[in-house]
Amino acid sequence: MATIAASRDLGARVGAYRLRFDRAAAWLAWASGLIWVVLLLRGILFTPWLLQPGIENELMPLEASLRDLGASHGALWIGGGLLLFAAVDVGLGLWLRQGSGRARTAAFIRAAVGLGLCAAYYLITRDFVSALVLAAIQGGIVVFLTRNSGLMLAYPSMVFLGIFFVVPLFSVLAFSLGKGTALGTVNLDAPGLHNYARLLSPVGNSGLVYVTIIARTVLIALANTLICLLIAYPFAWWMARQPERMRNILMMLVMIPFWTNLLIRTYAWLIILRKDGLINNFLMDVLGVIDKPLEMTNTLGALLLGLVYGYLPYMILPLYTTIERLDKRYIEASSDLYATPWQSFWRVILPLTMPGIIAGSILVFIPSVGTYVVTNVLGGGKIYLIGNLLEQQFMTSNGDKAFGAAFGVVLTVLMLIGTMVYFRMGRKDAYA
Amino acid sequence: MTQLTTRATTTTLPRVRALPRLHLGRLALPTIGVLGFAFLYIPIVVLVIFSFNSGARLGQWEGFSLRWYESMFGDRRIMASFEVSMWVAVMSTAIATVLGTTAALALDRFKFPGRVTFDSVLYLPVIIPDIVMALSLLLFFSSANMSLNRYTVLIGHVAFNTAFVSVVVRARLATLDRRLEEAAADLYASPFAAFRRITLPLLMPGIVAGALMAFTMSLDEFVITSFISGQGDTTIPVRIYSMLRFGLKPEVNALAVVILTISSVLVVISLVLQGRSQSVTAAS
Amino acid sequence: MTYAVELVQVTKAFGDYTAVDQVSLQIKDGEFFSLLGPSGCGKTTTLRMIAGFESPTQGEILLHGQPVADLPAFKRPVNTVFQNYALFPHMTVAGNVAFGLEMLHTPRTEINQRVAEALALVRMSEFANRRPHQLSGGQQQRVALARALVNRPEVLLLDEPLGALDLKLRKQMQLELKQMQSEIGITFIYVTHDQEEALTMSDRIAVMSKGKVLQCAPPRELYERPLSRYVADFIGETNFLDGTLISSNGHAEVLIDGIVKVIAAPSSVEQGAVVTVAIRPEKLNLFSLRDEEGSLLDADSKARQLEAEEGCVSIQGTVRESIYIGTDTRYVVQLTDKTQVVARMQNFGTRFDHYLPKGEPVLVYWSVENARILLD
Ligand SMILES: Nc1ncnc2c1ncn2[C@@H]1O[C@H](COP(=O)(O)OP(=O)(O)OP(=O)(O)O)[C@@H](O)[C@H]1O
Ligand SMILES: [Mg+2]
User: Both A263 and A345 in a single domain?
Assistant: First the structure.
C-alpha cells in the first residue's frame, strides 16, 4: 500500500525541523553583520572629509564621535572592530546553518557580546535609533536560538511595547525625582523627592493648591461617573428590551459616538451653549425672554455636561452587554419567591449586572481624571484639574517637566489603587 | 419556518423573550431611551447643520452654503494635517495589526518566559489615563534625543493600537476551536500552513474589525498626539484644537463633519463585519 | 518483527495528575485495535500522544520501529478522526477532504481524483460542495473519515467517532467502518467507552482504567478469560462469588459463605487464599428440581447424573426472581443467605422453554472451565 510518509526517513526530518530555527538565527546574524558593515562604510566614507576643519553642520552621530575620538586613530580602532565583528557574524551564520550544537552555544555568547556592544555603541555615539535596531536584532538571535515559537511570535511586540510603553512609563518615575530647568529639560543630577514635597506643601497663602486640584479632579470624575451610571443604567435596560433587530441598530448608534472624537463632540456643545450660541439666540431673538445672554459656558455645570456627554457611551456599552446577557429566569425566580420588583432589583439584578457596572465605571472614571479637553473647551480653563496642570507643565514654555512627572506618577498610582479597590469591592457580589 | 415558530412562542409565552418591566411606570423607560439618544445626537446634528451655514456667526442660521467646506479644502495647513493624519493612521494600523495579532497569538497559544508580565502590559493602556501615556512618551523622546515629528506620533499610535488590536484579536481567538488547528496538523499542515489556511481565515473578521477600530482610534486620537507631534506634523484633531484656541471659525465645523463621517463609516463597517462573522460561527 | 505502533512504558502527567500510567502496547499492521475504558481513563490522551499533539512525560512511542518523540504532529504518517470531527467550518466538504493532500503538495489532478474516490467511499459525493454546518451528525462523521482516509495513512486514529450518533446510525456505521477497514487494510486505533462496540469491531482490545492498561487481548479471550475482576465486570455481565480456596488438586474448589462448595477451572492459587469465582450468566444453566407432577426430585442424584452425562458441576438454589427480556429470561437464584447469582436462559420458543416460577428449587450447573478464579 502506498504510504505518503515512508517511516524510513523520519529521523532525517526531525533534524531538519529543528534546524529551521537555527537557520533563522543565522539569517539574523547576517543581517546584523550587514548593519555593522554599513555603519563602517558610513564611517569610512564620511570621516576623512569630516576631519577637515570647518565642516561642522549635519554631523551624523557616529562621525561626530569619531572626530571627538581624535582623527584616524579612533576611526581605525572602531572600523577594525566593526569589520571583525561583521566577519564573526558571517562565519557564525554559516556555522549555525550546519546545525551544530556548539554553534548554538557560540551564538548565544555572540548575542550577549553583541548586546554589550550595542550599549557601548550608544554611549560613544548617542545614536539611539541605530543602537536600538541593533539591540533588537541581537535579541532576535537569542529568541530564535531558544527555539521557542511563542517567544518568536511575541518578541516584536514585546520589544516595541517594552521600549515605547513600559520604559517611558518608568522613566516618568525617574524624571519625577529630577529638577525642571528653564530650558524645559529635566536635570537629574541630584535626584530627590522635592517635587512630591512641593506637591504636598502650600503655595504662598493660597493653601494646599495642588492637593486641592487632585481632590477636585477626583470629585468631579466621581460625580461624572455617578451621573453616567444613573443615566446609562435605565437607558441600557431600555435598549436591552427592544426587539433583536432594533437592538443592533441602537447598539450601532451608541457605538458611533463611542468611537468618534471627543474633542469634536465637545466642540459641538460650544455651538449650543456659547454666549452667541443656539440657546442664547433662541431665548433672546426668538422668544425675547432675556435680553442679556446667559453665561452657560465656563461653569461647573457646562463642564459636567461635557464630561457626561463625552463619556456616557463608555458606560452604556458594557452595561448593555451585561444586561442583555442577563438570564431572565433569575428575575422570574426572584419574583416567584415573593420579592417585590424593587427587592428583585436590589437583591438579584444589581449583583448580577455588577460586572457591567464595574467595567463601565472604570471606563468612565479613568479618562475623566486625566481630561483637559473638556475643561478647556467648555470650562474655559476656569476649573483647573490635573489634566490642565499637566498640559501646562508639558506643553508650555514655562512648564516644569519634573514637577509634571511627579503629578503623572501620583495620578497613575491613584488610578491603580482606585481600580484595584473597586474590583475587589465588585468581586464580592458579582457572580455573573 | 423560523418565523412561524417564533410567532408561536410569542403568542403562547408572551413574556419569556422580553425582559420583565421594572415597574417604573410604563412610559419612564421609553422616555429615557428617547431622551438619551436625543442627548447623544442633538449636538452632532447641530454641528452638521451649522457646517452648511452661509454666515460666519456660530449660533445663527443664515442660509445654506458650502463655503466653509471650500475654504477648508483650500487651506494648505488643514490639508497638510489631513495628509499627516492619514499617513499616521494607515501606518500605525498596519504595524499595530501585525504586532497585536502576533502578540495575541503568542499569548493565547504558547507558553514563553515573560508571558504573564507581557499579558498585563497589554491591558495597562486601559487603566492608565491617556495623558500619562502622553507625557511618558514625551519625556522618553526628549531624553532619547529624538526630535518630535510624524515618526514619534507614529510610534505613540502603534503603542496604544497594538495593545488594542491584541485585546480584540484575543477575544476572537478565545472563540476559536483549537482542535481545528490540531486537525490541520494531523493532515500534514506545518504550523505555518495551519495558521495560514485555518487560523488566519477564521480569525480574519476579528483582525479586520480590530484594524478598523485601530484606524478610527488613530484618526481621532488627540491627547497623546498633541504631546508628541512636532511643529509641522500635526494631525487633524490637534489642528482643530489649535484652531479652537485662536478663535472659532466655521471651517472647524466642516472639518469636524468630515472627520465624524469618516469615523462613523469605519465604525459601521467594522460592526457589520463583526456581526456577520458572528452569525457564521454561530451557525457552524 | 516491527509493529505499526508500539508504546513502551508511556506515561503522561498533567501536573500532579497522571493521566496515562506506564502503558505498553504493540499494535500490528492492519489490525483493528480498540482502547476501551470509562470516561476519563486516559484514552484520548493516549491517542493524542500517538498523533503527536501531546508528548509523553516518560516512555517512548514508535511508528514502524522508529521513535517519534521529536516528530511533530504534522510530520507523522498517522491521521485522526476527532471526537467531535473538527471539520474546518470555512471550507466545503471537498475542501476539507483535499486539505491533507494539498499540504503534501500532491498534483491537483490527483487530488481531485482521490477526493472523489474518498467521498464515494463514504457515500458523500453529492455533498461535496456543502459546508460542514449544512450536514447532519452522521454526514459530518463520514466527511471526517474521508478527510483522514484520503491520505492513505499508515495508522488511523479514531476517537469515539460514533459517540455523537444515535443508536441505530451507530450500529450501521460500526458495520461500515469495520468493512471499510478490512477492505483498505489500514491499521485502526479506535477509542470507545462502549464495550459492545469494541467487542463487535476489534481484532484486539486494550481495557484501560485510571491510566493503566489492565488487559490487552482479542475480544473472545477478553470475554472468556478476563484476568481481573475489573475487566470481567466492565465487559459484559458477570457473577462474582467470593470465597476461600479449599482445594486445588485438579479442579479448584471454593467454599462460599462457609457453606456451598463451588468447583472452578484449575488455578495456581494456593490453598486457603481468598478468591473470587467469576461466571457469566449465560454460562449458567438451571434445572428444575420438581418433576411434571410437582413432586421434588433428589438433588444429589440429579447432580451426579448431570456430572456423568454433561460433565457439569452443580449446586442447589432457589429462584428469587425471574425477568423476561425478550431473547432470554434472567433468573436471580439464591444460593446461600448472602449470595445470589444471575443466570440467563435463552428463549428458544420450543417446549423446553419452561418458565421457572419464584420459589422454585433448582440446580444451577455449569461446565468447570467456564468458572474462573480471579485473585482480587
Ligand atoms: N490538558 C490537560 N490538562 C490536565 N488534565 C488533563 C488534560 N487533558 C486530560 N486531562 C485529564 O486526564 C484524564 C484523562 O483524560 P482523557 O481525555 O484521556 O480521557 P478519556 O479516556 O478520553 O475520557 P472520555 O471518554 O471522557 O473522552 C482526565 O482525568 C482529564 O481530566
Ligand atoms: Mg476522550
Answer: yes
